[in-house]
Amino acid sequence: MLSKDELERYDRQIRIDKIGVEGQQKLKSANVLVVGAGGLGSPILLYLGSAGVGRIGIVDGDVVSITNLNRQILYNMDDLGKEKVLVAKEKIEKLNPNITVEAYNTWLTDEEITERIFSKFSAVIDATDNYETRYLINRIAVKLNKILFIGAVGRFVGQVMVVIPHETACFNCIFPERAKEILFELTEENRNQGIIGTTVGVTGTLVANEFIKYALGIGEILMNKLLLFDGLTNEFSIINLEKDPNCKVCSII
Question: Does position 192 have pLDDT exceeding 90, yes or no?
Fold first, then answer.
């Protein structure tokens, strides 16, 4: 049941005919793990928290630095040097005390730890900027049958896709994993290209919207589709994806 405070807090979205009180209760009952509390994670966490998603997990092993502040809108100068997940948890709980926020102050590098954390949630959001971590997240999400929402950014361009294990193309189907040395080089290359805050804002918001639709059971989510956003040209495009029957991750059941 929704409390009087919740009914008032969510009044504007409850008025939407596709949501209503029943839909708001679905959001309250929903749970999701957000991996990455940086540029993408900031708008994702803010919008999921404000929408009333009942239980949100946050995984990140980083601390806030001044170079984060052009795009990571959860943080300010007072947060420099502090653990991101702890700051994010505190701020999301202050934004909405009606939800539960769980913080995991760690990097995801170990499959056993990743499985243990993922098993506590129904869905996972990949808001990372590290290729090696992305492949780990994809592998464990598919293995545990957790629906996976992926956001990726660079300069003025954002990408969003959704993975439904064994039904749709997974991240490895579209971008087959390479040697660790190559993944490290690709990660560094992407970081060196830079990023503008508005790109992560738009992309993170789209990712949050995909999860909200999924939790509500409304609209269309990006199944076997890759959404591309170009902030320089104001173009949105969708590329149709196909599951790789020989994928080493999702074609093995």
Answer: no
- Is residue 249 in a domain? no
Confirm whether 78 is domain-assigned.
yes
- With a pLDDT cut of 70, the percent of the chain lying above it is 94
- For the stretch 90-128, pLDDT in tens is 999 999 999 999 999 999 999 999 999 999 999 999 999
Q: What is the C-alpha separation between 39 and 41, in angstroms, rounded?
A: 6
- Residue corresponding to tokens 């760690």: 106
Average pLDDT for residues 9-33, to the nearest whole number?
Answer: 98
pLDDT of 178 above 90:
no
Q: In terms of residue numbers, what domain contains 186?
A: 4-240
Into how many domains does the chain fold?
1
Tell me how far the alpha carbon of residue 156 is from its chain's centroid. Answer: 18
- Identify whether 251 is part of a domain: no
